[in-house]
Amino acid sequence: MRIKAQVAMVMHLDKCIGCHTCSVTCKNVWTNRPGMEYVWFNNVETRPGPGYPKEWENTDRYKGGWTLRNGRLHLRAGGPVAKLANIFYNPNMADLSDFYEPWTYDFEHLHKAPSKEHLPVARPKSTITGKYMDKPEWGPNWDDDLAGGSEVVPMDPNVRKLQEHIAMEYEKTFMMYLPRICEHCLNPSCVASCPTGALYKRDEDGIVLVDQEACRGWRFCQNGCPYHKVYYNWNTHKAEKCNFCYPRTEAGLPTICSETCVGRIRYIGVVLYDADRVKKAASVEDPKDLYEAQLSVFLDPQDPEVIERALEAGINRSWIDSAQQSPIYKMAMKWKIALPLHPEYRTLPMVWYVPPLSPIMNHLTNEHDLSADGYIPAVDQMRIPMEYLASILSADDTSVIRRVLLKMAAMRVHMRDKSVGGMDEMKKSKLLQEAGTTVEELEDMARLLAVSKYNERFVIPTGRREMDEDLHYKRGACSIEELAPPEGMVTYPFERGDTP
Amino acid sequence: MQKKKNKLLHSLKHLSWGNRINDGWTEESPRPRDWEKMYRARWQHDKVVRSTHGVNCTGSCSWKIHVKDGIITWETQQTDYPSTGDNFPDYEPRGCPRGASFSWYTYSPTRVKYPYVRGQLYELWKEELESAGNPVQAWENIVSDPGKREKYVKARGKGGFVRGSWKDVCDMIAASSIYTIKKYGPDRVVGFSPIPAMSMVSYAGGARFLSLIGGTILSFYDWYADLPPASPQVWGDQTDVPESGDWYNTKYFIIWGTNIPQTRTPDAHFMVESRYNGTKVVGVSPDYAEYDKFADIWLPAKAGTDGALAMAMTHVILKEFYVDQETPYFMEYAKQYTDLPFLIILDPKEGNYRTDRFLRASDIVSGEEHGEWKTVVWDETSGKMVIPNGTQGHRWDQGSKWNLDLTAADGSTINPKMSFLADSDEVAMVEFPYFAENTGGKVQRGVPAKRIKDVSGNELVISTVFDLMLAHTGVNRGLQGDYPTDYNDSNKPYTPAWQESITSVKKEHVIQVAREFADNAARTKGKSMIAMGGGTNHWFHSDQIYRAILNLVLLTGSQGVNGGGWAHYVGQEKVRPLEGFSQIAFANDWVKSPRFMNGTSFFYFVTEQFRYEYDQDEVQADWGGKYANMHPADFNALSARLGWLPSFPQLSQNSLDVLREARERNPDDQAVVQDIARQLADGSLDWAVENPNDPRNFPRVFFNWRSNLLGDSGKGHEYFVKHLIGGSDSVLSDFEQSWQPETINLAEKPPEGKVDLFVSIDFRMTSSGLFSDIILPAATWYEKHDISSTDLHPFVHPFNAAINPPWETKSDWDTFREITKVFSDMAKEHLPAQEDLVMSPLAHDTINEIAQPFGKVKDWRKGEVEPIPGKTMPNFNFVKRDYPNVYEMWTTIGPNIQSGYGTKGVKIPGERVYNDLLNRLGTCKREGIGKGQPDLYSDKQAINAILLMSGATNGRRAVEGWKSMEAKTGKTLRHISEGREEEDYTLDALTIQPRQAISTPVWSGLENDNRRYSPFTVNKEFNIPWHTLTGRQSFYLDHEVMLDYGEGLPLYRPPINKGPFMKGETEVENKEKSLTVRFLSPHQKWGIHTMFTDTDNMVQLFRGWQFIWLNEKDGASIGIKDNDWIEVYNRNGVVVARAVLTYRLPQGIAFMHHAQDRTMGVPGNTITKKRGGTHNSVTRIYPKATHMIGGYSQLSYGFNYYGPTGSQRDTMTVIRPLKEVDWLEN
């Protein structure tokens, strides 16, 4: 057992209102500069839809993530030999048309237009070429709320797979939102794809980063990541990606996307896992077993043995405390309502998703169907096909999805019963049984999902900077070390921060 | 010890092997990670400043503005709201992607950094100033010479701005205002600035200036059609709704035409989270809207048919919960808090009856004070008619019975009788109208009735509102008449089957939802809620749609209950610190009677839309028609002269001259009043509303601030451009083929380019700016101080300056202070102090609301009554205009405060306030009439004045307000806020942390004990009457015009289906495929109105501008694909946009989201060869007469409170592909 700690996130898709505040606040801080115009570390996709970049889930095309051959993990895009062969031309990489050509408008013209015949207008202009364009042709969220309809929706690889389940008709419309950031995987294929070794997973919190000094811009990480969450900065010629706002999490603050999420769908916490089990978990044969295999990697933070071993591994008490309070542990591991995104990529992603409920289908008219469990409709009559959710969140295993939805419905039935009454006791206990849950668990869930206090959504210990060198020095000089490096001077009484 | 880094060694470390773990699969690397400081440095910043966004989004969110290296870099939401309690979701975080994009503006290329002037005008100005020698003469020389005037008027909207200096532009503004006041009167100086709640002090700066000089201040909430007229009709209240936190308290939530995730973004989580607490959610919308994602069932009602759906639900609830089985909670509620038990006189007509007015005390007894205003119930216990407390008559009779206690004069308890079914004297056959496309008509239904004798011995047939409601909605109780057989009877209104053919919602779903909604309310005592908004409100018949929906919350006892009732959100109308704000904004501290004008009527006339009127909608039932068939302009003129609606400009003559001349002829005020009334009656004075084409009545100077009137809210945009501005337009209609009014004097051709000077104040360039003569550079919301409040949360949020205004920008407060200064100085020479005649309408919440008894229309012009100001015509007020001292007054708080102030009938004593203001604001030391008064020079002083003077932000004021309500109501009320008496919010305090508003009688909700605000809980829990005729919540409206329209009771009226062109008009030649659809303009996702739409984030996150959503089958039918260019047009104008095709919308409708300005990415159209228009290029104003009635209880005028709304959804347009794109920019 080799215990490591990871900061992880849950996004509760049932709560997501698709507002994109997360995208904007993230972009303003991290990718609001030349070379990064088209980059959204955080984006939100309407589903069904092709996503950003287009069809990122099309692993046949982009060859991201891992594949299992003869029981062994291989990068789908190929190993070092294939990389060397493609080093100057990578046929699997997304290009600007898969993302989009960013644009702005010629606003100054409105102020400066000379006296003329017509009302002046600011025309769209590419921020890549600086040239006027007649109209933009694609964007990072071009298909918001099913814009483009049946011209666009079939580009969704999940839709293509499930043709018979997806109706593109007014009466049967369904949609959901899928916000995405880097998954900060336990088994990151981007890291493995980098010929220079510039990508790494931080030991203390599992955040995956691109070293901006080491990156040589080979860009294999870009499609090596099956989630397409590493981007190329065309100005610096280096890769950049979501950094899980480590400058904030180190201070105990949630990521920007999380704190600014007005749907309050995001939860952040610490989980403990056994790093020695990762390879095995990623290598199980049947993709449908990957979800359970991934769960088996995590350790119970209340288990005395786990605590002891964690302390031995240098994980301090406050990180263990945080792991015990972790909303992620509760939702993903304990209640099992949060699921990994495309577990079949075998990267063991660490951003987890609670699948959404949806309205019942409109063709239902008989009284029994309309009031299935008192007021709350039955999960089998909901609009979003379970196959669709399963394609995204459980490697096509609908039983996993159904169990989560049942739990959510059971929570609503129970909480209604508790506050209003009038539910059918027989039906209710049957529902609880089918969902495999208890009243106590449902009430715990309602607390975290509904009341959802800031300090319960985000349980983040401050970074373990005490492990660093020269904290005494840094207190006085951090950020201006370049100004006055204390070369050869013995001004400070202690050699290291942790040595008396 | 930090060592200097060895770069080579550092890079070589990459090559060293780390510790391999995980079966050799993973390497633990010892590599250095110094580079990580790069991202840390990006996050580091200098300071965080609390501010917000002054935009009409109803959000009013508190933000952290991050300043880094002295630059505004980004914003994130504050999360430090006071907790809502241990087991309740909190308000954190509040904010949306639009607000999060705002920092872009600060340094963007669209920023207005300097004053700009139209080049042609600036040139003329400089020339004339030099030759005339003084600025007022210079202005006269320009505007009185048609050639010179045309030179710059025709250049509007065609580029050619030059930079001006602040001094020059202020001189031009002051000179034009002074010239206009002298020549035409002060009411020709007009200001439009909407929604004070979004930035009160910025609003107040201009409004205070206009109030002091006698300028016209335009309303906005009604004009935007965000005002739900049903609210004053039903409750006598503008709009009062639950804060969003209260959504969490509901147990059954119908979301009906308000896109909560998209437009209530920061609030949506309360709805989402309530579901986990067991709340059922139902979505009603024509498209699969974002909120339907959260619903348990989606009712896809066709656009505009919501009234039919609600009437069918009303039918189900009345039948199952009142008739089949009586629900005790509902019955008790209905008896005490609604007008259902009140008695109605039935009027015999052609063998049947029609419902007439409420029975009054004056009908049955003589000598009762204000007996014409006291309505009557039948007491079940005594078997007699009684006059319950709390009616409009009780409000004004000087007694203390204005309460809802069911106590009779002898102390016994009244048990109002709901129905005469068991002991009727006869079953009266009553005729009811119903409306539906093609199939409207009348039904005759039996109603149990009593026969009584009135005070003069005449026999009257009476019934209760409840019995009439049952008959009207078709709930049979074994009575004869045209009753439907059951729910499946699709031929008779208002059954679930009947509505199915109209709405396309399955009848089973209607029955189920109505039943659950009521059952839930019965179980929870009213925790059933309906959220509503633009989708249901922005219609010509909005009031009927809303009244039909409100049936559901009233009949289920849900109104006035936390977690229940209506939840209407369109427009940020709620100024929580209302009492103080009203004083500062409208300068009541110095002068009374500001010129409040309703925007819809103003623009209807000023933009000449009344001359392009459609012929009257065929009355779909053979019903009334006396008023329903009047041209809206004729009705508006009637309304103005009877004192119902305001009318500014008021007279063709200059109001200063009229009063001066009348004074010269008469000895005292009374005689002056009579003189002027006589002149009006004999026609020697002209109503401006009857002479809108007379150049004397044009608005001459127009201030547009905090607003994008031309690019956004102006319904009938092309008419604005043509007639108000005089720019090049794309109006396609023909006034000669249109319906013309009969009583309005018309010029042969509608005049164009009416305004002499159009001034915009903004920090970005919009269409309003492009059409303006002067654009003043405004400070942004991160560069000034102000306050903001909303319906949706109980806090008042401050704006603070993260940086000082850069370039030559100024806050609106400072801008108007400067304009006022220049104006005052110039007035010393050109405009002496004088007296002004202000004619104001009969106002709600004043004694004037009982001016016109029984709601019968009596026209003095026809000799039906005497012309009596304040009774049968407007009030006349004499106001001193001290023009040379306007600046001194503007910058100080005037002495009037000492004699007390208030609003909505609430009175706050003034002495103490005045002294507190002196202490808090300091004493003015500037020489002049303001010396020694509380100083109001700066925005911070204005903020603190408003906070100190208002109950919501000052506990002492709240308690004083409650005390003032005690005498009239006979109730003890002061205790409501006594526990918070010491609370005293200031700008600094609110900047440290948001604070929850204090309960004040200005509002109807309770906020103590950390309770969520829900409207009318005061009324329900303390038996305080609503401000209505009966004092109760109204189902029945008995004004003569309402009855003429057939709208006495709530019913369904279909949307208007006029157009796209009128008979006789030249239609656009159309060789290719085209499609006619209903054009809807719901609020959008990528901006708040046009605000935020220019930011890179909002541009990228969808498709840029402009676009129109269509069903993909409709798109295919005219051969267009997603993202293809299209033209959308009708008689009102032409839009060019790109199509967004989807299957999420049904066929037959188009969504062009409000509001997309035409400044970005809009090429020329092929019809007029001009620039394609805005979403409002194809809309127009349709005023509804029932919104213009007045002088009658809750149907009396209030600024932004009652009045015709500028609805815009009743629009049909043609769509066709646009083949060639011409940018018109060569």
From TrEMBL, chain A:
- Where does the record place it? Cell envelope
GO terms assigned for molecular function: oxidoreductase activity
Query: Which residue spans traverse the membrane?
Result: none
Q: Which PANTHER family match?
A: NITRATE REDUCTASE BETA SUBUNIT (PTHR43518), RESPIRATORY NITRATE REDUCTASE 1 BETA CHAIN (PTHR43518:SF1)
NCBIfam families, per database record: narH
Q: Which organism is it from?
A: Ammoniphilus resinae
Q: What class of enzyme is it?
A: oxidoreductase
Q: Which InterPro entries match?
A: 4Fe4S_Fe-S-bd, Nitr_red_bet_C, NO3_Rdtase_bsu
Top-rank taxon of the source lineage equals: Bacteria
Principal location listed in the UniProt entry: other
Protein name, entry field: Nitrate reductase beta subunit
Keywords of the record: 4Fe-4S, Electron transport, Iron, Iron-sulfur, Metal-binding, Oxidoreductase, Repeat, Transport
Domain (4Fe-4S ferredoxin-type): residue spans on this chain: 7-35, 173-204, 206-235
Cofactor(s) needed by this chain = [3Fe-4S] cluster; [4Fe-4S] cluster
EC number per UniProt: 1.7.99.4
TrEMBL record, chain B:
Kindly give the membrane topology term recorded for this protein.
Peripheral membrane protein
Q: What is its EC number?
A: 1.7.5.1
Task: Report which reactions are catalysed by this protein.
Answer: nitrate + a quinol = a quinone + nitrite + H2O
Cofactor names: [4Fe-4S] cluster; Mo-bis(molybdopterin guanine dinucleotide)
Q: Where in the cell is it found?
A: Cell membrane
**What Gene3D superfamilies does the annotation carry?**
3.40.50.12440, nitrate reductase tail (4.10.1200.10)
Keywords from UniProt, A to Z, are: 4Fe-4S, Cell membrane, Iron, Iron-sulfur, Membrane, Metal-binding, Molybdenum, Oxidoreductase
Q: Which Pfam families match?
A: Molybdopterin (PF00384), Molydop_binding (PF01568), Nitr_red_alph_N (PF14710)
Domain spans labelled 4Fe-4S Mo/W bis-MGD-type: 46-110
Q: Which family does it belong to?
A: Belongs to the prokaryotic molybdopterin-containing oxidoreductase family.
Q: What is this protein called?
A: nitrate reductase (quinone)
Name the source organism.
Answer: Ammoniphilus resinae
